[in-house]
Amino acid sequence: MMEIDNKELENKFQQKIDRDIKIEPNDWMPDAYRTTLIRQISQHAHSEVVGMLPEGNWITRAPNLRRKAVLLAKVQDEAGHGLYLYSAAETLGADREQTIDDLHSGKAKYSSIFNYPTLTWADMGAVGWLVDGAAIMNQVPLCRCSYGPYARAMIRVCKEESFHQRQGFEIMTKLAGGAIEQKEMAQDALNRFWWPALMMFGPSDADSSHTEQSMKWKIKRHTNDELRQMFVDVTVPQIETLGLTVPDPDVKWNEVKGRYDYGPIDWDEFWQVVGGNGPCNKERVDARRKAKEDGKWVVEAAMAFTNKRNSKKSA
Amino acid sequence: MEKSKEWPLWEVFIRSKQGLNHKHVGSLRASDATMAIDNARDVYTRRSEGISIWVVPSNNITASDPSDEDSLFEPANSKVYRHPTFYDVPDGISHM
Ligand SMILES: [Fe+2]
Ligand SMILES: [Fe+2]
Per residue in B32-67, pLDDT tens? Predict the structure, then answer.
């Protein structure tokens, strides 16, 4: 009896998805849909929050006040993105603190790109331009995701995201058009971030276990390889405009396919970084853990203050 | 890892400009209403998205049950005569 009911509910659910009707928090949904979304949204939230670290590294060393104000505003936006996403995960019944503790224990993942160091100021350009650029490529289709709160969070995020990429490209333009040393710095940053940016779209379709189901549920609208190709196609001309060199000798325009071909991705590196062995994995998670531990007294003091005031009011 | 006492959840409503309703924009955690307003300003109005903020403790909201959708909202569907398009207006009649 129970099983028949579930089958019927599942059919109804899929029909809604097929008709592009959004799923809202209190609606019936299959357990696997819920757990898939909790995993994806919390990973996304962690990426926003951990993503503040490589850029936060340069706030105090920005070359002038304008750059500093811009970078500060961008990093503040990323904190907000983290919050929208943790809230969206909470609507699915995820326990926020548990979600964060899973990041700190290494159980939960975040985007592998943030495990690379930001060595020079040019990296602020490369990160804004390439990393936020790749993130936008991922996030725009998520604005149409079948789960309402996730889609709404993405619409807000995408609105805020567009200046992130532009400020990064502006930094690259300035450096690429500057002294020889500045242009070399820009090229060096591009060399280091190009491949990790391509890896941001995740494993190739052949190795991506969740893609098919996620597309059926309209959580995902494009495969990893499709998005990666779109990114290459828009970015290569931008590199040329900057007067820089694509750090991949295999990149060339394919007249027949109407897109750029590119060389093989080093998937060993990708899996190493995802598995915790990237250059900065430990540093990033340690920084987040320390932030929680150091801030704990503030959380507790604020709550104690509220409780005390409430008990006075009722007395 | 030791559990801390989490701050309660608040729903945030923003009036984007004078003359419009407050609209739900999202939620956040804060220890009290004042902090919830401050955080809502920082998170949801960094680009002049609003001129007024309401915050409501999430657990004070009572929602209709989505499984009651049919019985709650069906009567509206069967009363088409509540819409002006239900009525025929003879040709030549205007201002109606
Ligand atoms: Fe972001
Ligand atoms: Fe961003």
Answer: 999 999 999 999 999 999 999 999 999 999 999 888
Ordered by start, the domain boundaries in chain B are 9-82
The number of angstroms, rounded, from the C-alpha of A43 to the middle of its chain's C-alpha atoms is 8
What is the residue type of B41?
Answer: R
User: Residue B70: which region, alpha, beta or left (left: phi > 0; alpha: psi -120 to 50)?
Assistant: alpha
Q: How far is the CA of A50 from the centre of ligand 1 (A)?
A: 10
Cβ-based contacts of B29 with chain A (< 8 Å): 96
* ipTM of this complex: 0.88
Say if strands A252-254 and A259-261 run parallel, antiparallel, or are unpaired. antiparallel
- Closest listed residue to residue A141, CA positions, set A128, A158, A160: A158
Q: Which residues of B touch A27 (CB under 8 A)?
A: 66
Is the Cβ pair A27, B66 closer than 8 Å?
Answer: yes
Q: Which fold has domain B9-82?
A: Ubiquitin-like (UB roll) (3.10.20)
What's the whole-model pTM score? Answer: 0.93
Neighbours of ion ligand 2 (CB under 5 A): A 132, 161, 164
Q: What is the number of residues in chain A? A: 315
> Considering only CB atoms, which chain B residues are within 8 Å of A305?
31-32
